């Protein structure tokens, strides 16, 4: 995820946006000058964006839903280009450009979606806490709602929490968090501990993880980033 102007943007959505601008520009440049080609690329990207083709769940689209979105997107783009050509005759483009651009975009999306759903891009999570919030974070991480595929490696139990996760997924509590992250090749640590004032909260270990290159994310931030939800019950007084 990338944070732009206080909003989380999916890396896959941003990659799709840039890739499709380049594809549409290349498809139009073959039969038109640069400025009409650039206008075509921007109009088509705008049309696809208005119909939700850059939404956060696009990495989990299949070919049927992609076709249902891309066809009206290109029809809308064609109408907008015709309107623009009526004002500026130099902007007129042939129908072959739209067919070529649509096919190239569809092919690019199939390649990107296949790669995004690959286990090679699966992110490994360690969740600090073993209560109800930890269970909900695991459910979100393994559902189709989140931005990217995750694999929950395990949970680090914290004293004072009512256990709500499978005991088989508990990690050894005697090892430091940084050592656990490196042993299990964790890409991120999600903190779900509710009461952080009882002395059992591993502040120093979390700081070591952050300094050691392992991102540490709060549960509220994780829900906001992956599900576009603000969970009031996961917010901290600070």
Mean pLDDT: 79
N- to C-terminal separation? 24 Å
Helical percentage: 40-55%
Query: Largest sheet at a glance?
Result: 4 strands, parallel
User: What class would the helix/strand composition place it in?
Assistant: alpha/beta
Tell me the β content. 5-15%
Number of helices: 8
* Shape label: elongated
Which stretches are low in confidence, meaning pLDDT under 50 for 5 or more residues running? none
Total count of domains = 2
Q: What is the rounded Rg?
A: 23 Å
Strand order of the largest sheet: 4-3-5-6
Total DSSP E strands: 6
Order of helical and strand elements: EEHHHHEHEHEHEH
Q: Can you offer a commentary on this structure?
A:
There is one protein chain. The longest helix has 25 residues, at 63-87. Helix 1 (11-29) packs antiparallel against helix 4 (95-116) and helix 5 (132-141) runs parallel beside helix 8. The model has no long low-confidence stretch (mean pLDDT 79). The relative contact order is 0.11. It contains eight helices and six strands; from the N terminus they run E-E-H-H-H-H-E-H-E-H-E-H-E-H. The strands form two sheets. It has a four-stranded parallel sheet with strand order 4-3-5-6, with helices on both faces. The protein has a two-stranded antiparallel sheet with strand order 1-2. The protein has helices at residues 11-29, 34-50, 63-87, 95-116, 132-141, 177-183, 203-211, 219-227; strands at 2-4, 7-9, 123-128, 150-156, 188-191, 216-218. Strand 5 (188-191), helix 7 and strand 6 (216-218) form a beta-alpha-beta unit. The chain has two domains: 2-116, no CATH class; 122-234, Rossmann fold. By secondary structure, the chain is an alpha/beta fold.
């Amino acid at each position: 995820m990338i944070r732009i102007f206080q909003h989380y943007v999916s890396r896959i959505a941003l990659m799709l946006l840039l890739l499709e601008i380049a594809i549409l520009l290349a498809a139009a440049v073959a039969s038109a000058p640069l400025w009409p080609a650039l206008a075509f690329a921007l109009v088509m990207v705008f049309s696809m964006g208005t119909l939700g083709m850059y939404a956060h769940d696009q990495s989990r689209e299949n070919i049927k839903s992609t076709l249902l979105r891309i066809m009206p997107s290109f029809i809308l783009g064609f109408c907008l280009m015709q309107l623009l050509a009526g004002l500026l005759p130099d902007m007129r483009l042939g129908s072959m450009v739209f067919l070529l651009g649509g096919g190239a975009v569809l092919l690019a999306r199939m390649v990107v979606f296949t790669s995004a759903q690959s286990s090679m891009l699966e992110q490994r999570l360690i969740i600090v806490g073993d209560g109800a919030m930890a269970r909900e974070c695991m459910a979100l991480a393994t559902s189709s709602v989140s931005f990217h595929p995750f694999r929950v490696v395990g949970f680090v139990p914290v004293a004072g929490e009512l256990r709500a996760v499978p005991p088989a997924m508990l990690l050894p509590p005697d090892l430091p968090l940084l050592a656990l992250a490196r042993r299990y090749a964790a890409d991120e640590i999600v903190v779900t501990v509710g009461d952080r004032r009882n002395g059992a909260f591993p502040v120093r270990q979390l700081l070591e993880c952050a300094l050691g290159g392992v991102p540490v994310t709060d549960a509220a931030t994780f829900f906001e980033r992956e599900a576009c939800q603000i969970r009031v019950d996961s917010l901290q007084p600070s």
